[in-house]
Each structure stands twice: as C-alpha cells, then as structure tokens.
Amino acid sequence: MPEKGDGMTETVSGSARRGKAGRKGLKMERIFTRPGVHPYDDVRWERRDVVMTNWRDGSVNFEQKGVEFPAGWSVNAVNIVTSKYFRGAVGTPQRESSLKQLVDRVVGVYTETGRKHGYFASEEDAEIFDHELKHALVNQVFSFNSPVWFNVGTASPQQVSACFILSVDDTMESILDWYKEEGVIFKGGSGSGVNLSRIRSSKELLSSGGTASGPVSFMRGADASAGTIKSGGATRRAAKMVVLDVDHPDVEEFIETKAREEDKIRALRDAGFDMDLGGRDIVSVQYQNANNSVRVSDEFMRAVESGGPFGLRARRTGEVISQVDAKGLFRKLAQAAWECADPGIQYDDTINDWHTNPETGRITASNPCSEYMSLDNSSCNLASINLLKFLNGDNTFDVERFVKLSELIITAMDISITFADFPTEKIGETTRAYRQLGIGYANLGALLMATGHAYDSEGGRSLAAAITSLMTGVAYRRSAELAGAVGTYDGYARNAEAHQRVMRKHAAANDEIRTLDAVDKSIHGEATKQWRLCLKVGEKNGYRNAQASLLAPTGTIGLMMDCDTTGIEPDLALVKYKKLVGGGSMQIVNNTVPRALKKLGYQQEQIEAIVEYIAEHGHVVDAPGLRLEHYEVFDCAMGERAISPMGHVRMMAAVQPFLSGAISKTVNMPEQATVEDVEKIYFEGWKLGLKALAIYRDNCKVGQPLSVAKKKTEEKVEEAPAPAPAPVVERGPVRTRLPKQRTATVTRFSVGGAEGYMTASCYPDNGLGEVFLKLGKQGSTLAGVMDAFSMAISISLQYGVPLETWVEKFTNMRFEPAGMTDDPDIRMATSMMDYIFRRLALDHLPYETRAELGIFSAEERTAQAAGQDPAALNAEEDVERESLAQSVPVEQPKAKEPEPAAVAHSSTELIESHQGRTADAPLCLTCGTKMRPAGSCYVCEGCGSTSGCS
Question: Of 497-506, 599-608, 671-680, 909-918, which range is least confident?
C-alpha cells in the first residue's frame, strides 16, 4: 500500500501519535461513555423468553429462553437478534444468550485488529474505541449490516459485506464462472449484481459461424440457479440484479422479458394453477429471481427528448448494427415497468460522472437493491445510523455527537476490510485495493415528522440534504485522516485527480443547499466546515476509501434498532403493529405523531384527541382540531394521504449529490397510474441527477398473496321481495332456491390466530338459505374443501334441513386450529366448525332453540349470572331481526356495533385493515406474516428475514 509522508495529520478529533512502522495512529474521543465506567454498566438489563411461531399453522419456528437484553429493546428487536444473530447450537452451553456476548464477539475483533494494524495512537484510544462502539450498538444508535453479526468472531469466514458486483465477459468460461460465483454468494445469504452487456447479442455471429445465444438466454440458467439455492433456504431469498446497456441489440427482448412472464402467470392462474408467490406452480415461471435494470446513457435520453433515432451497437466492434426510435424504446421500457415493475432504470453517465476511480474502470452495475455502485468484482460493507437518536428534546439536532459517531463508524468499517474474508479471490483483491464503505442512515421519515416537516416539502428535503451532506463530509474527512494514519487505498495514486474532483463536486453541491430554519442551518453550517476540512486534509493525505456512503434498505437492522422508518423512506403509515413483552400484541399510533403535534404547537388535550382519532381511522383527515396546513406533515407511503410518486423522486434528488453510491428505494405508484406517468418519472429521474430509479404500481403483479387482514367487504344490496314458490307435490324433498338478490351478512373471524370469512344469505322470510366460507389462500386444498363444504351446507338448507340439525352435529367438534377467538360472544372454540355453527346459531336461531343447545350470547350469559331472564333480552331483537330480513326499504335500521378488527400480524396487515385493500408484499417464508417494504426490498417484522441483500 502506498505510504504517505510522516507529517502530522490534521484531525478534528485530536492530534495523532506515532504508530507502528512510523505511522500515526488516531486519537479517539469519547462520545457517549465515561472514563472508568464500562458502557454495559449504564444499561438496565433484563431476561426474556423468545418463542417465535408461524401464526398460520401454530408451529414453533424458534425458541430460546432467558436471553439478556437492555430493558428498552422491543420484543421484535429481541426476537430478531436472538434468532438470527446469536451463534451456537440452541440448548448447548456454546449458544450465545446475551446481547453482551454478541457485541463482545464482534467489537472484540474490530478493536484487536485496530490495535494490530496501528489504527490507534495509544492503548487508551483503543479502549475508547471499544467502549464507544459497544455503547452505540447496545443503545441502538447504529448497526453494522447483517453479515457482520452472522460471521465476525466465529469459526466461519469473516465475511462482512452484503453487497457484491460481479463481471461477465463474452466467453463461455466467464459465463460459467458467473453462475458459480453467484451460487457461492447466494449460499452465504448475500446478493450480487452484474451487467451482461459484454455478451454478444442474438443478432451477432460467433467465430464458428453460428449465431450467438444472447444474454437473455443465459439469464435463464442463472435465474434457475438462484431459485434453487434461495440463500441456502435459511435467512433470505437469493437476491440479484441484472443490468443491460440501452445500446445492446437485445435490449428490447431484455425489457419485455418479465412482462411476458407476467402474462404467462395470468394464463396459468386462470387455468387453475397455484401462481401465488411461493405457490407450487410459480417455479415454472422464468426470470423471477432477479431485479432487472436498463442502463441508459445521456445520448439516449437526449434522443428521447428530441424524438430522434438511437443506434444499437455490436458488442465486439462497437459499430451500429441497427437503429431504433428512442421514444419508442423508452415507451417500451415504461410499458414493461407499468405492467410488472421491471425493468428499473440506471443513469450511466451520471453514475460515472461521480466515480472516484475511472482510471481503474467504469461502473457498470449495482448490487440487487441498487444502492452500491462501484467497480466490477467488488463488495461493500454497510452500516446505518439511527437518526432519531440525535433529535434532542427541544427538537434540535445533536450535530456534535453525530459528527463523532460518523467518525467512529467509518474507522470501524475500514478496520473490517483489514480482517474480512470474501467469497471470491477477485472480489477480495478489488475490495482490499479500493476499500469501499457504505455508511448510511435509517429513521429519516420519523425524524422529519417529529420535527414537523412534511416528507414532500422544501423543508423536509433541505433537512435531509443537510444531514446527508454532513454524514458524507465527515466520512471522507475521516477517510483522509485514516490515509495519514495507515495509508491510502492502493488504487488512489492512479485515481487521485479524479477522486479529488468528485470531492469538490460534493462540496459544491453542499454550497447549493438552501436552509429554511434553525435546525437545517446548524447542520448545514457543520457540513460546510467538514467539507472544507475534507478537501484540505484529502489534498495532503489522500483518501483511505474509494467510496464512503450510500442509503441501504436497512431492513433487518432497522428492526434491530427499533426504527419507525427504514432508510430514506417516509413512515409506512401512522399506526403500527407492536408485540408486547409476555405475549400478545396491540395497535399503536407511531410515537413520532404526538411528538410532531407538540412541535406544531398543539396542547396536550388536542394531541390526545388527534391521536385517538388516528388510532381509530388510520389517518388524520378530519381529525378534531388538526389544522389543514398540518395534514402534509403526517403524509405516509400508504394510506388516505399517500405521498405522490414525484414526492419520493424529489427526496431522492435532494440527497443524491451527497452520496458516494446511490439509494435503495422503490417509487410506489397508484394502480390507476398510466404508462405516461412512468415515462415522466423515469425522465425526471434523469433530469434531477439520480443514479437509479425503480417504480412499483400497486397490484401490477399477479403472484401476490391475499392478506387475511383485509378489511371486510361490505355488501349493500337492496332486496326486492320475491313471491313464494308455488307448492309442488313430489315424492322427495323440494329445493327452494334463493332469489337472485338476497340479504347477506359477512362475518370476519379468528380462531386460534387463523382467520376466515363467512357469508350467510337469507330468504326474504328470514330463513337461512346459503353459507359460504373463505379459509386459506385461493387455489389451495383447504380453500377448495371449504368451498365444497359450503355448497353442501347451502344445498341442504335449501332442501329444508333445519339449521339446528347442523348446529347439533358440528358444535363441540374438536380439531386444530382451536382456542381464543376475536368474537365477544364466543371467546373459545374447539375448532373452526365449532365456531362457525355457534355463530350461525346466534345469528339465525331463536333463543328457545339456542337455549336447548346451550348456545348463549355474552349479554345472555351476563343476564343469567345476574339472576335475570335472558329470554326477555331477545324478544325485541328477534322481532327486529325478522323485520330487517323481510324486505327493503327498512326505516332507519338499528345501527350495529362495528365488528372487531381481524388480528393483524404485522404493520402491513394492520394498514390493510384500515385501507380495505391488499398490499402488494410477499409473505415471509419463515413465519408466514406479510412483509413490509424496506427500500427496494421487503423485510419481515416477525423474524427479520429480508427479500434483499441488506
């Protein structure tokens, strides 16, 4: 590694001293800790039992009792860390049982490596580093990415990176190496990206005289491999990104690849195949294991703008072999994304204009979530800061501590490259030579709301830009100090001029930030100071790291830190699902809401009223006392006041100039959005200087599972009286069919955590004539059996079998699922059948008949206990039930109490229950709950599994 001069390094954190081999280690400063006090001693610890189940079948996924965590950690965070990150066989003495052991295992390796390689000026500085890192981790101030927790300090390879970029050349040997390298990466639970543009197109000849297969054909093999491995079937699915340049002759086939497969899914689904995500027949569909992106150039986008032609070029010679209409090709790109959310778009010239190492090679691809963009055959380790930890009680931002923590994290992340192992030799060589880092943050959306800023506002964007600029400015300034202490990255000398040019671009972008209030101003002032120091120290020392920052999805680690929002995302919704210590769960209004209301000047009584309204409705529209101009502060990614797609794009554009890499984020679009809307977003992304962009239009994909928490479908059908059927004398029973219009009630229920729907339809004279039951997902065996059972019951009722006969047969039947219900009249049920027929009896049989069967409502049981006559309670209700069922119109029918909400098992399902629609998110393969968006990936709140590489 090139050595720098021996002059003193200019640092903010203090003077440096001579280290090993004449270098100067860093002087560390305390941020949160005190001399002589171990950071663990400032934390209140408690023991908990972790039992994680799959709520759909009740099976136990994981169990470990007596684990030790800080008292302030949520149940979710404890469950996820215990099940995913603790090492050792469960039930053995080698199994970790305390967060202290986990943090000691990881931080111990970082500190010892720093000592060994001269990072610290003295032993005291090493101790400060050790204590500060431990304090920050156990107090959820920041977190490393998952591979660090999986691997560091264990007997496994010390892999610390989650994101990898591979390369493929136009040879069969290289293509087969790609398959192998991807497989190794997926097996380790990580993800990779690759650009296939070097592979000859299907319109070009091979040296043997035949026609080349083209990159899309080779994608089939890689897709099948990814689908088979599924990350070893453990913590996450295989995650991959496939990129193709817009001037590749096969680009149109690439663009339409996944859209055509989506048509296949529809056809197979309509033919009766199980095409839900995770269904047994979905595996026959190709290209589903990768995110696809088209890499567009400025030349192409200008041709789109002007309506001109664009040339597609041969891969070997670079000559134009065909021309296309640029606008037409761009339209096809937007059409495919509108149909199935793929492909995304990456802006090649923008990416490479901010590239610090162009002399080594161009940036051609990204990781699966699009935030890491660097050289081929490289990797990046990530860490994210919990921004809400720096918001003081008076709504000021703790700039000083944020600066010092960013220094600490960059130092630790650079140390990790020194001891890290890598999945391939080529990746190891590139990463050690360029030392790419990815510091980022989470909880931006919560921070903005808590400080009274709308996400889609000038104030919100100004605050986000200032924080991002400060973070990256500190990161590169610390990188320059590290270069003075332990040397520049190997490729720096070759790329020094380009690297310094990009640093100046960052600093110039910082000068363009326009602050709007005191909070922005203080952060921006410090950012300006940090960039000035960065340029000065960097010019003298060079830099230790080719890249420093990006914005990752922060899925699992966001849950580990108990963040309300992930990465750069806004709040998903104003209400969330929260697990409780000791079991159970509850719906809560996000803690940022009352904090924001207080910041906006509302009194405590007003705050309580608004929060109560939000808890009931899930949004702020018409909330009592809330001023209209404050509605936008509470806009979320989903719900009554969803942030507009361009609002997300504008936020990305605000922070992009201050990131070495890019941003993991999907721009959600409403179902009614048009292809023209997609074109506009992709075009504006280029104009605004983004590096990458992906969209998702609600309900555009077929293979999305229906949520059992979906809001009840209300049937409001007016009933016309039908004449009684003419009597017919026959030897057998006669079937009396229901009229085409009939009164019906829909009951949503939960038994032992499993939910279902029951629709009961009546004759005009109030006799039950039809029952339909919805259990299990569409196309499943259970759903089919219940459909058949429903038809059998309905036909028998229409042939005159009394309802009480069915009630006698099926009540008290015992089988799983059984247990608690969400029905106040029937608190316990021995089976689904037991519950269903008890509910039908309560709704459709008179009191006398039910009394003989021993079936009573909660009100009737209360009357019995008080010595009253339950029959007296039912006289008026029976008359009313009969009159309501008879006909339409009915004068002012008695208002019924709202049905209790179905049990939600994640925040996504809770949001669905408020919105009355199904969210487009996959079900977790581990615990069965519906996942929530995290950047361009998904994360499970129940167990922390992700669909990406973060």
Answer: 909-918
* Residue 359 annotated among the catalytic residues of the structure: no
Active site residue 369: yes
Q: Are 414 and 483 in contact (CB under 8 A)?
A: no
Of the residues 353, 387, 421, which one is the last residue of a structural domain?
353
Confidence of residue 690 (pLDDT cuts 50, 70, 90): very high
- Domain-ending residue, one of 835, 860, 886: 886
| Catalytic-labelled residue, pool 163, 340, 369, 924 | 369
Please give the pLDDT value at position 737: 78
Backbone angles phi, psi at 827, to 5 degrees: -75, -30
Look at 615-624, 824-833, 889-898 and tell me which has the smallest mean pLDDT. Answer: 889-898
> What is the domain count for the chain?
2
Q: Identify the domain containing residue 797 by its residue range.
A: 743-886
DSSP per position, 558-626: HHHTT-SS-TT---S-SEEEEE-TTS-EEEEE-THHHHHHHHTT--HHHHHHHHHHHHHHSS-TT-TT-
| Residue 776, Ramachandran bin (φ over 0: left; ψ between -120 and 50: alpha; else beta) | left
With contact defined as beta carbons under 8 Å apart, do 150 and 192 qualify? no
Q: Active-site residue among 371, 640, 770, 941?
A: 371
Burial class (CB in 10 A: 0-12, 13-18, 19+), 890: middle
What residues contact 118, with CB distance under 8 A and at least 6 apart? Answer: 19, 20, 21, 23, 25, 485, 486
* pLDDT average, residue stretch 130-155: 96
Q: What is the length of the chain?
A: 950
Per-residue pLDDT reduced to its tens digit, 291-340: 899 999 999 999 999 999 999 999 989 999 999 999 999 999 999 999 99
Summarize pLDDT for 583-592 with one digit per residue, the tens: 666 677 888 9
Q: Indicate the pairing of strand 378-386 with strand 437-442.
A: parallel
Rounded distance between C-alpha atoms, residue 620 and residue 600, angstroms: 14
Q: Is 590 a catalytic residue?
A: no
The amino acid sitting at 843 is D
Residue 561 lies in a domain: no
CB of 587 closer than 8 Å to CB of 615: yes
Catalytic residue, chosen from 76, 79, 139, 367, is 367
Q: Tokens for 99, please give them.
A: 């967060």
CB 638 within 8 A of CB 572: yes
Higher-scoring residue by pLDDT: 527, 814? 527
pLDDT digit string (tens) for 731-763? 456 777 778 777 888 888 888 778 888 888 888
Our measurement of the distance from residue 381's CA atom to the centroid of its chain's CA atoms, rounded to an integer in Å, reads 19
Specify the amino acid at residue 302: R
In sequence order, what are the beta bridge partners of 442?
A: 386
For 46, the token pair is: 């408690």
Q: Between residues 74 and 780, which one has the greater pLDDT?
A: 74
Which residue type is seen at 55? W
Taking the C-alpha atoms of residue 709 and residue 275, their distance in angstroms, rounded to an integer, is: 21
Calpha distance 144→153 (Å, rounded): 14
Nearest one of 698, 712, 709, 705 to 637, comparing CA atoms: 698
3-state secondary structure 633-656: HHCECCCCCECCHHHHHHHHHHHH
297 lies in some domain: yes
CATH number, position 211: 3.20.70.20
Residue 464 lies in a domain: no
Lookup: tokens for 49: 């039992």
Does a structural domain hold residue 548?
no
Could you read off the pLDDT of 858-890 as tens digits, one per residue? 888 777 777 777 766 665 544 443 333 222 333
